[in-house]
Amino acid sequence: MLRLFVATVVSFIVSIAQAADLTVATFNTESDTDTQPAKVAISIGEIGAFDILALQEVESAQALKAYAEAAAAQGGRWRYIVSESGVNSDRESDFLGIVYRTDKFRQLKTTEIHFIRSRPDGSVYGEPDWSLRGALLLRLQDIATGAEFQIATVHLKCCNEPGVRAHQAALLAVEIVHDSEIPTILLGDTNIPIEPGKEGPEGSHADAFNNLTSGANLVWVKPHNPIKTQCDPSFNSMLDQVYAPTSLAKGATAEIKFPDASYCDKDAQGFSDHRPIVAVFPNALQGAGPTLTAGALVSEAAAEQKEYLAQKAERPGDFVGH
What we know:
Elements: H1 2-18, E1 22-28, H2 37-47, E2 52-58, H3 61-72, E3 77-82, E4 95-101, E5 105-113, E6 118-119, E7 127-128, E8 135-142, E9 148-155, H4 162-178, E10 184-189, H5 206-212, E11 219-220, E12 240-244, H6 246-249, E13 253-256, H7 262-265, E14 277-281, H8 300-311, E15 318-320
Parallel strand pairs: 1-2, 9-10
Antiparallel strand pairs: 1-14, 2-4, 3-4, 3-15, 5-8, 6-7, 8-9, 10-12, 11-12, 13-14
């Protein structure tokens, strides 16, 4: 039995090492009063396979738990983290969240950037506005290869305030460049309107876009099927986007899910009014993989105990898929 266990572990490690692609998704789950998290969770379950899911407008930790459980339905072990920012006194809460596979990645660091919760006033950091959301960063290490990277999810200021978005994006860019030795994938609802088929935003919206691209040394991963990502009939914009360093963006693909017009009809039924995006980064996870030594498996009992502990969800936010 021990020999079979070792063979299984070796086969599992080799399969992971060969599959060095990274698949990430982003989804504004909408925290309006008419949204039902249980129905949004159904949509998450229909997105398809992904390794990491960045979320915006999460109405509560309980809703995020439901979304993590929906992700875990595809199998594997999962964990979610939630932001501090997102609490509002005059409207529904809209937290940021990240759901990721703990059987593929080791969590190294979680950071919430609060200084982008501000408006421009001529100073370096601007005037604080705590009704705005921060940025949630998760630093991960790929278990199979040792490669490190960061996932950042954002939901910048909406509603005809391009100057505030440009200010927030500039501050965020400084932080990303500061940690440039660790590649950062930035994704979320930037509220930067890009018309389907265009190469970027126009007019006053270009400043925020430029701050996130050239200012942060990132590239917008343009979806191969450009279609509006918010169902509002008054707008025809891709507000949800994925950005990555050139080294990762080369060869990357992005797809807007649920492109059929009928998807937006479900908004009135309690589903989200945004479409999710899935991006695949080929060969993004490269590095020195782990080695399996005989000393790691002292006995059959020790091996089985190690496997049991690895599968057991011991922390709040952990889920084991079935």
